[in-house]
Write a structure and sequence with these properties.
Butyryl-CoA Dehydrogenase, subunit A, domain 3; Butyryl-Coa Dehydrogenase, subunit A, domain 1; alpha+beta; Butyryl-CoA Dehydrogenase, subunit A, domain 2; four-stranded mixed sheet; binds flavin-adenine dinucleotide; four-stranded antiparallel sheet
Length: about 375
């Protein structure tokens, strides 16, 4: 593995970071404090990101993408996270790239790819991933949503919850059982347009962090979709879900690694400037130890992320490496965000400084894409196989 960046990759990194610093995250402290998602701002930032090609990075050119490899893609997404302090926005962008676009690319028919990918890349379509239900999150095989055959199509019924972008999406991948008697082997995936009668979105769910972008439920109420909406084969839903999870676990934190890098730089500067007892606080070993721990978490997170991307680029299996990356990156972001607050003292606890926001944003990461407990189970199981 050689992670020395090419000249093109260095340029992409530089351009993406300066775009994000210049264009994204306006009024962030107020928007985060309000809790009620302000459509105007995040939609505008989403549009700007689509315009410079963030959503198109690793999509083939024939579908409106840039056709970049996974390593180059995560270099850009990491730089985006460094420059953009709005973790809600960067997570939502990553969610669409890895949990919506990636499964369409892998399992979609030509017609499905042509129908959805160009719009998802250019920002005219917003995509959501609807798997979780109130009674089945970690145990996704226990989902209760059904897809009953009717005419030349299926009638979908069920409720998906905690779905990123649900209140605003134009389409969603929905997992539902075509044959409940077959358990996980009866689950299928569908590409459902939000305009379809019976596709309902209650008001957004309020949340602890990532408050700048909406999340919510999708209620499927006798929602009829044509047979052509099925993604992959009948009964392939669990395999599609696992495939999506492998991509999502590998890379959904790409931008958060950039956030951790920015967070560390800010902490190093603050610790050097803040005078207490007549000296900068980085003279105190307990403070500098925290900085060292943050750097160790950042470097190990980055290496796990890049290894997962390198494996994907080589077409090699990476389920274990994806789970390791997801577990470490999510826990590292929480731990470093807490350290950042401690280093900033009382200032770190004030909402107006924005330091505490990273911690609230980071906590979601130990839950979505499979909790840390579930990642440990996946890792332990793969070690035995
Ligand atoms: C910010 C955020 C964004 C999300 N985005 C999406 C999205 O876009 N689309 C979507 O479909 N879902 C999304 N989710 C849902 C997320 O994937 C689920 O919340 C997650 O899988 C956990 O499921 P649950 O909430 O039902 O918790 P539960 O499964 O009820 O788990 C509760 C607790 O029990 C533990 N636990 C459960 N089973 C086991 C076990 N076998 N061994 C050990 N411990 C166990 C868990 O680790 C957890 O601590 C999102 C969640 C969050 C917080």
């Amino acid at each position: 593995m050689d992670f020395a960046l090419s000249l093109e990759q260095q340029q992409l990194q530089k351009d993406t970071r300066s775009f994000a610093e210049r264009e994204l995250g306006c009024n962030l402290v107020q928007r985060d404090a309000n809790g009620a998602v302000s459509e105007r701002y995040w939609r505008e930032d989403w549009r700007k990101c689509a315009e410079i090609g963030i959503l198109a990075l690793c999509v083939p050119k024939q579908y409106g993408g840039q056709g970049l490899d996974p390593v180059t893609t995560i270099i850009a997404l990491e730089a985006l996270g460094y420059g953009c302090p709005d973790n809600g926005l960067t997570l939502a962008l990553n969610g669409q790239i890895w949990a919506v676009q990636a499964p369409i690319l892998e399992f979609g028919s030509d017609a499905q790819k042509e129908r959805y990918l160009p719009g998802l890349c250019d920002g005219s379509l917003l995509g959501a991933h609807g798997a979780t239900e109130r009674e089945s999150g970690s145990n996704i095989a226990g989902l209760k949503s059904t897809a009953e055959r009717k005419g030349d199509g299926f009638v979908l019924n069920g409720v998906k919850t905690y779905v990123g972008l649900a209140p605003a999406c134009d389409m969603a991948i929905i997992f539902a059982s075509t044959d409940p008697s077959k358990g996980p082997w009866g689950v299928s995936a569908f590409l459902v347009d939000a305009q379809t009668p019976g596709f309902e979105r209650p008001p957004p769910q309020q949340k602890m962090g990532l408050r700048t972008v909406p999340m919510g439920e999708i209620v499927l109420n006798d929602c009829w979709v044509p047979a052509s909406a099925q993604l992959g084969r009948a009964g392939a839903g669990s395999a599609i879900f696992q495939h999506a999870m492998e991509w999502e676990r590998s890379f959904i934190f790409a931008s958060h690694v950039g956030s951790m890098n920015r967070q560390l730089d800010e902490c190093v500067n603050y610790a050097n400037e803040r005078m207490v007892f007549g000296q900068p606080i980085d003279n105190f070993q307990s403070v500098s130890n925290r900085l060292a721990d943050m750097r160790l978490r950042l470097d190990s997170a980055q290496l796990l992320l890049y290894r997962a991307a390198w494996l994907k680029a080589q077409g090699k299996p990476s389920a274990l490496e994806a789970a390791l990356a997801k577990l470490h990156l999510s826990e590292a972001f929480v731990a470093s965000s807490l350290d950042a607050i401690r280093i900033h003292g009382g200032r770190g606890y004030l909402s107006e400084t924005g330091v505490e926001r990273d911690l609230r944003d980071a906590v979601g990461g130990v839950i979505y894409s499979g909790t840390s407990d579930i990642q440990r189970q996946v890792i332990a199981k793969l070690l035995k196989s």
